[in-house]
């Protein structure tokens, strides 16, 4: 028998930890530890708890479903809740996105969308964006370029992945139009020098870079990708794992660009904390997916996750959460821009909805992970939980639960302002 030890030592050290909080309860935007201390959770479990911790409607759906059917493997039976979720997503999405495949995580969904794209097109290559994050499996690591740590000492990784610049105008010190024009030219060079159009199965993009720094993709660039894909028979995949389900003020961020993807990837906020992901595509594309060439034990069969997803969508609709996101987004961004005028260490404030970034720079304009870390640490010490991101780890991201109210945003801004003052 093992001797007594700090039970945390039993956990693998591969996990990084923002805090050492022993979380035992959550409600709304708050997490509570064993002593009952309250923490404002502006991480949302990395964009997962969009309806807040333990939303009563989601909890009730989980409890009710757990007494009826917990699991029904899709190769053996077809759970009714899985069909209901497909029907509800079909109502949300524009035509022709009307066929669905479910799995457990964003990485799994991304793997699935690439396999589907390869089978449909008969092509082998995929183009990703600089600064991307698509997962931690071997294929999705190869598709991830936001930080070397995500692929550190795991190479060689699967081939056929090519990288093109994302139009991040602040990073380049350009106007948005200059960055878009540059990204368009560089994509053309990828086609001419690395992966010809007729061997490219898909281009995949996050409509707001996640781990890459919370950088929104400009509408003109997304529309250019749609045009290029249509011209060359390439599938456009939009990865909304983090930006979906109300996070940016619409159910899906791509709705704001007048662009419809060929394949949509979703996860995180779909289940309000339950593990679930999925892809949506068209009947024409899905028909080319040969039966048996992809699957999974739990995808579509974890009925409790399906019930949680159904309740999540209903809650977002019934409680007018999208309108709250838009109002709180305006409040948060305006508040941060006022702080930026006082604290020029904040080089940029950007984002969509409640997916907002504050990027920290030194006096010479170079990235400052040191300042970001100081501010972040001070916020955590004052019970405001937030995360860093970006290739230089110099971005603090704001991702509160979408049920956050006006007073809570103001409280978070005050804590953040005090942290800025301490960091100078």
UniProtKB/TrEMBL annotation:
What molecular function terms (GO) are annotated for this protein? identical protein binding; pyridoxal phosphate binding; transaminase activity
**Which domain of life, per UniProt?**
Bacteria
Keyword annotations: Aminotransferase, Pyridoxal phosphate, Transferase
- Name the coenzymes or cofactors required: pyridoxal 5'-phosphate
Q: Which PANTHER family match?
A: AMINOTRANSFERASE CLASS III
Q: What is this protein called?
A: Aminotransferase class III-fold pyridoxal phosphate-dependent enzyme
Species the sequence originates in? Flammeovirga yaeyamensis
> InterPro entries, alphabetically?
Aminotrans_3 (IPR005814), Aminotrans_3_PPA_site (IPR049704), Class-III_PLP-dep_AT (IPR050103), PyrdxlP-dep_Trfase (IPR015424), PyrdxlP-dep_Trfase_major (IPR015421), PyrdxlP-dep_Trfase_small (IPR015422)
What the entry lists under Pfam families is as follows: Aminotran_3
**Can you tell me which family this protein belongs to?**
Belongs to the class-III pyridoxal-phosphate-dependent aminotransferase family.
């Amino acid at each position: 028998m093992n001797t007594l030890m700090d039970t945390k030592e039993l956990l693998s050290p591969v996990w990084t930890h923002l805090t050492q909080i022993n979380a035992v309860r959550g409600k709304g935007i708050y997490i509570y530890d064993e002593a009952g201390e309250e923490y404002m959770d502006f991480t949302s479990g990395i964009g997962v708890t969009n309806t807040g911790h333990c939303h009563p409607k989601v909890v009730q759906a989980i409890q009710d479903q757990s007494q009826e059917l917990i699991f029904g493997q899709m190769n053996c039976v077809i759970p009714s809740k899985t069909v209901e979720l497909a029907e509800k997503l079909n109502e949300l999405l524009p035509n022709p996105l009307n066929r669905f495949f479910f799995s457990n995580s964003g990485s799994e969904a991304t793997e699935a969308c690439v396999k589907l794209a390869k089978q449909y097109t008969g092509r082998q290559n995929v183009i990703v964006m600089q600064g991307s994050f698509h997962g931690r499996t071997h294929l999705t690591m190869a598709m991830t370029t936001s930080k070397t740590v995500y692929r550190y000492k795991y190479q060689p990784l699967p081939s056929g992945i090519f990288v093109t610049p994302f139009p991040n105008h602040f990073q380049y010190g350009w106007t948005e139009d200059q960055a878009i024009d540059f990204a368009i030219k560089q994509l053309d060079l990828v086609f001419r020098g690395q992966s010809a159009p007729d061997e490219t199965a898909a281009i995949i993009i996050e409509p707001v870079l996640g781990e890459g720094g919370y950088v929104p993709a400009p509408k003109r660039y997304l529309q250019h990708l749609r045009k290029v894909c249509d011209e060359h028979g390439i599938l456009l995949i939009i990865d909304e794992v983090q930006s979906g389900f109300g996070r940016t003020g619409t159910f899906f961020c791509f709705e704001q660009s007048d662009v419809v993807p060929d394949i949509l990837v979703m996860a995180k906020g779909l289940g309000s904390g339950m593990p679930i992901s999925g892809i949506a595509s068209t009947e024409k594309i899905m028909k080319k997916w040969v039966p048996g060439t992809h699957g999974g034990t739990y995808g579509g069969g974890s009925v409790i996750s399906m019930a949680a997803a159904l309740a999540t969508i209903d809650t977002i609709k019934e409680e007018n959460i999208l309108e709250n996101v838009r109002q709180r987004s305006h409040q948060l961004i305006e508040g941060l821009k006022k702080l930026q005028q006082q604290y020029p260490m904040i080089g940029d404030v950007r984002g969509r909805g409640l997916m907002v970034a504050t990027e920290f720079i030194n006096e010479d304009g170079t990235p400052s992970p040191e300042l970001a870390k100081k501010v972040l640490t001070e916020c955590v010490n004052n019970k405001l939980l937030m995360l860093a991101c970006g290739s230089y780890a110099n971005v603090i991201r704001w991702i509160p639960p979408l049920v956050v109210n006006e007073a809570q945003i103001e409280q978070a801004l005050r804590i953040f302002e005090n942290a800025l003052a301490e960091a100078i």
